[in-house]
Amino acid sequence: VQLVESGGGLVQPGGSLRLSCAASGFTFSGYAMSWFRQAPGKERELVATISASGSRNYAVSVKGRFTISRDNGKNTVYLQMNSLKREDSAVYYCSVRVYGLGSWGQGTQVTVSS
């Protein structure tokens, strides 16, 4: 399993970013995919999940601002982040659990600052 995130960067409060996670090594279309984030000094938290069938769930803190989506033809999961706040600053990771084993990408840094 390999997961490679991209799309992070520096953005002003109120701005938008779209993160991508390219997956390989497993049958992408058959698995739920998740985005997590971890800010300095804080525990890693679940941000959003999309099931194999396309059902979505979000953390309360991002609901209405973030959208998770997937493109099974490209083996890629996305996280569209709008109305970003300073407290959204973190390293964002995508994750999948295959045969009970969790896998993570290397993460992509998102910094929300003026």
Task: Report on the architecture of this protein.
The protein has 114 residues and is mostly beta strands. The protein has strands at 2-6, 9-11, 17-24, 33-38, 45-50, 56-58, 66-71, 76-81, 90-98, 101-104, 108-112. The chain contains no helices and eleven strands. Strands 2, 4, 5, 6, 9, 10 and 11 form a seven-stranded mixed β-sheet that branches. The protein is globular, with a radius of gyration of 13 Å.
The percent range for strand residues is over 45%
Compute the average pLDDT. 97
Low-confidence segments, given as residue ranges, are none
Radius of gyration: 13 Å
**Run of helices and strands:** EEEEEEEEEEE
| Number of DSSP strand runs | 11
Tally of DSSP helical segments: 0
What does the largest sheet look like? 7 strands, mixed
Into which percent range does the helicity of residues fall?
under 10%
Given helix and strand content, the structural type is: mainly beta
Distance N terminus to C terminus?
37 Å
Shape: globular
Quaternary assembly: single chain
Task: Write a compact overview of the structure shown.
The protein has strands at 2-6, 9-11, 17-24, 33-38, 45-50, 56-58, 66-71, 76-81, 90-98, 101-104, 108-112. With 114 residues, the chain is mostly beta strands.
